[in-house]
Design goal:
alpha/beta, Rossmann fold, 10-stranded mixed β-sheet, 4-stranded mixed β-sheet, 16 helices, binds S-adenosylmethionine
């Protein structure tokens, strides 16, 4: 498969592995409600995604991101180029001296690559990612995604009508659309429903349903009339149909009836043929609402009529913040994200947006939950200090208040790295945080916090994992502790500061001692 090369690629291809693992610190004053499990994280998404890994790896059902398009417009609150001071600093650190020579596409690719890798790892095998983008980077993005997700996992390249009025001062063409590129973590394997991503149908709209009426009070409910003739000349299907009033009707010239005489007679007997109120009309066949597919297959052309447009998004934000000046220039409309959620999520899924901006994804999740009594959760990440609290969190908070959503969110800051500069575990790290991290690095799966039983943090593949980390100076694997471990034949891995048991006894009891912090794997 062709691959993409750019300056700085070598420095970033495995960079996701080098990102330090940071702790998350809840900011109570900026959070709303209690234990909603929705999260808004302030910080660089590279570190935030890494911090989420021990908790959410393989658990996210749908990711929507709307990264900087790299248009060169730098007059916004956030920087649309990859020239944000924070990202510039990060590029200098990661790419080194070469960073000075990067062109704008190189920078964008360096920024996106490690982030997309972490996003892929967070997706469940039944998950999917939707990425908004325009022509500045769409071509490169597709090749990057082919590389990271596999070209066989491309689902669609949606065209969204972001504007209605053409821009008459455009130099060449007036740009009326954005793309939304869709990749599955794993495409479905043939018809096996349980393998890989399954898309939902789009629920039928009221407008679509309104076309079904019930003029004859049919007990099967509303129906609409469809033509009984087709432009197909099947000689045997050209025959007269007798109306209730005795009139004989032939199909129009050049057409035949849609099916045989016998079938039409059965349909007449079953009151499936409609001859109009008078019983005189050309026959039509009834299509019952109860018998049609309960949704429509999503299409790749997303008209502003059903997905909203940029103008609608700005109006939404103005209304929420109740002022003329927009607090954020490039929001997406709630209807656009809701359409994605309709196609890609079920009622209890987790949705992630790591370029959160004005928090539209959070709003859309709350809104769809209200529509279908769902319990979906969202995780939003926003880098900029001026946006995360004042725009992202504030917007979601106002949406909860204004639209009376029965929900809330935890606002978190990225805290210190788990390991400090001397390689020691950060003092503020809690037992649960370290347990979650250790269990993840040992098993590559997420810890079930409810299953923690004092020092026993989990059981995986016939191995029990224990952690002594509760009281400084007392985290010692000694004879007293041996009395507390389960008496069974399973292998045991015990993390502690010190071990006072001789190796023969450890071997006999199938215990492997791992010293904190030196033997805690750096993920
Ligand atoms: C195009 S906007 C997203 C708009 C959003 N979809 C909405 O509806 O409001 C991109 C956002 O990503 C943020 N961002 C850029 N780089 C980031 C990073 N490395 N980590 C987290 N957020 C980042 C920007 O500050 C900006 O708010």
């Amino acid at each position: 498969m062709p691959t993409l090369n750019w300056i700085g690629k070598e420095a970033v291809v495995n960079h996701d592995k080098e990102v330090p693992f940071r702790l998350l610190k809840k900011v109570k004053s900026a959070s709303v409600g209690e234990s909603s499990q929705n999260l808004i994280i302030h910080g660089d998404n590279l570190e935030a995604l890494k911090a989420l890994m021990p908790y959410y790896q393989g658990k996210i059902k749908c990711i929507y991101i709307d990264p900087p398009y790299n248009t060169g417009n730098e007059n916004w609150v956030y920087n649309d180029k990859v020239n944000s001071p924070k990202i510039k600093k990060w590029l200098g650190k990661v790419v080194g001296g070469e960073a000075e020579d990067l062109c704008r596409h190189d920078k964008w690719l360096c920024m996106m690559y490690p982030r997309l890798k972490l996003l892929r790892d967070l997706l469940s095998d039944k998950g999917v990612i939707f990425i908004s983008i325009d022509d500045n980077e769409q071509g490169y993005l597709r090749v990057l995604l082919d590389d990271i997700f596999g070209d066989n996992n491309l689902i669609a390249n949606i065209v969204w009508q972001k504007k209605y009025s053409p821009q008459n001062d455009a130099k060449y063409f007036s740009d009326m659309h954005d793309f939304i590129v869709v990749y599955a973590k794993k495409k479905r394997n043939g018809n096996k429903e349980n393998s890989g991503w399954n898309r939902n149908l789009i629920p039928r709209s009221e407008e679509q349903d309104a076309r079904y009426k019930n003029p004859d009070n049919d007990s099967r409910g509303p129906w609409k009339a469809a033509d009984l003739s087709v432009k197909r000349m099947t000689a045997k299907d050209i025959y007269p149909i007798t109306t209730p009033s005795g009139r004989k009707v032939l199909p129009p010239k050049g057409r035949s009836w849609v099916t045989s005489k016998e079938t039409v007679e059965k349909w007449i007997a079953d009151k499936r043929i409609w001859f109009g109120k008078s019983g005189e009309n050309v026959p039509a066949v009834k299509i019952f609402l109860s018998e049609v597919q309960q949704g429509t297959v999503p299409i790749t052309w997303w008209d502003r009529k059903f997905a909203g447009d940029n103008q609608e998004a700005k109006q939404e934000l103005k209304a929420i913040f109740n002022k003329e000046n927009l607090p954020f220039e490039t929001p997406k409309p709630v209807r656009l994200i809701k359409r994605i959620l309709q196609i890609a999520t079920n009622k209890d899924d987790i949705i992630l947006d790591s370029f959160a901006g004005a928090g539209t994804t959070g709003h859309a999740v709350l809104s769809i939950n209200k529509d279908d009594s769902g319990t979906r959760k969202f995780i939003l990440i926003e880098l900029e200090d001026e946006i995360a609290k004042k725009v992202t969190a504030e917007r979601v908070k106002r949406a909860i208040e204004n639209e009376r959503y029965n929900s809330g969110f935890e606002f978190c800051e990225l805290d210190k790295p788990l390991f400090n500069e001397e390689g020691h575990i950060e003092e503020e790290c809690t037992f649960e945080q370290l347990a979650t991290y250790i269990y993840f690095t040992e098993t590559s799966t997420n810890l079930d916090k409810k299953a923690i039983d004092r020092h026993l943090i989990g059981d995986y593949n016939e191995t029990e994992f224990y952690l002594l980390f509760k009281e400084k100076g007392k985290n010692i694997l000694n004879k007293d502790f041996l009395k507390k471990i389960n008496k069974n034949d399973k292998k045991k891995v015990i993390y502690a500061d010190k071990c006072l048991i001789d190796s023969r006894t450890l071997d006999k009891l199938k215990i492997q001692f791992k010293q904190i912090p030196y033997e805690v794997k750096v993920y």
